[in-house]
Design brief:
8 helices; Copper Amine Oxidase, Chain A, domain 1; 13-stranded mixed sheet; alpha+beta; single chain; Cathepsin B, Chain A
Amino acid sequence: MNYSKKFIALGGVVAITFLIKYNTIFAGYEQIGQFRGGDLEAETWNPLIASSVNDNLLSVVIDNKQYTNEEYSFFMDDNLNIMVPVSILRDALNCSAHVYDGNRLLVEKHASEMEFVKNEYTATVNGEEEEIVSPFIQKDDQFYVSLNDLSTYLDYNYSWDMQENQALASDNSVNTAVVPSRYDLRERGRVAKVRDQGSYGTCWSFAALGAMESVLLPEESAQYSVDHMTLSNNFGVDPYEGGDYTMGMAYLAAWEGPVYEKDDPYGDNQTRSDLEPVKHVQEMQIIDGKDYEKIKEAVFKYGGVQTSIYNALRSSQTYSPYFDKKTNSYCYIGTEKPNHDVVIVGWDDDYPKENFSMDLEADGAFICQNSWGENFGDDGFFYISYYDTNIGTHNVVYTGIESTDNYDHIYQSDLCGWRGQLGYNKESMYGANIYTAEGAESVVAAGFYATAKDSQYELYVVRQFQDKSSFSNMIPVASGKLSNAGYYTIKFNQGISVGAGERYAVVLHIITPNSVHPMAIEYVADEDSANVILDDGESYISSNGDKWENINTVKEANLCIKAFSNNQ
């Protein structure tokens, strides 16, 4: 007896339901079995399976971290493979993953390279062409790639748990370095254009924005205004005087920029106050303490990393005993503090120590981009030895560059950002900023600084804030741990609705190991921060979350805690 396609399809649904219930569908779905005497072809059977999987809560567990399709738009395709968005790969698989020209995906980890071309069933793996089970695709303005294919060639164990509707992937290469011994962003088209700061002390701005531009490449090419960052911040520092990375972080965290270079060109010592930011920077990680492996991983995964050195040169034309012009190699060993910012764009563990003008212990150097034009070094780039006194001491990587439609409102009182720290001589403390809603809104996220690595946090919201007694009504909204110091935006587990004119509190409980002052504050710390406004906020602090006091009874300062909301 012959069955119609409709009847077969209906029968397939029944079969799937039965098999899912009793967990009898074989792992991987490699073969199609018989159903009541009729052969179900893969083109009929597979879409039914995929539809059943996608209609339920689908989760992916990668190295014990769970992702669900409620938050991320992965799905099972008609080849019965889990397709994951490229946007999560860098963090989920701890790898480099970038899309070129909207058509080609390059994934790198260890010394392995995988190159996918959109809609093709082959991939180039370490120079060899290999067949893959599902092609790299674009769907609804997102790029997707098969987790099964990635697992095969990146040395992951992959399995499918039918009962849990869950894909699992675990890294087998736990003792293998994530990054290769040599890496150069220039070879991958992921460095910003070399620029020239001229006679101004604006290296910190060039380094910050150059690192940002590198992080966005190759998917997005942009050039941001150094003049705007230098002149349109809240520090009032003359562009000849210089600055530091914390000033750039404050400018970006406050949504004062960035703006495009074409709208505020460099070098005229003028700026425009009418420009709106073209990106919202929501996360900036700080890597301290010459942790070279973490610096390399940041360059590898994200892009250029801003760092500080002591610069004994004054221009591309001056001489220094620490710089070898023949090899474009620099190394300073001494007690001088950093006075110049550059961008780390790569490294070479085997770069010869003989290329430096002094006797060094061993080989190895970072590849750095300067802001002295293409006439300096190797078309604007040079090598800095691993043994340089200052390289790698303080580093910033811009890991959260988002579009400007991510939130409708930012509430803040710390326009100069992290200028100092406050605490009760112990690792933990509570802090709260009070804000007044401009309209009917949902408070959905908070921004704050982790002042050291491995900080733990808990976030709360207090509605209808009246006075200190209101803190007894704290609503928990988020918690977690942060590996690095830096500025972070944490999304709430649930939005908190507030009405127009309603006062509410965003509460941060921060625990920072080995710290006695864990809370970042804005205050008048020096001449650079003389313009800090201290009457634009209302802040409270507590040792234990029970007894609270206004911060101004302890220190004239603002807490660095921001709130983000969307209109309802």
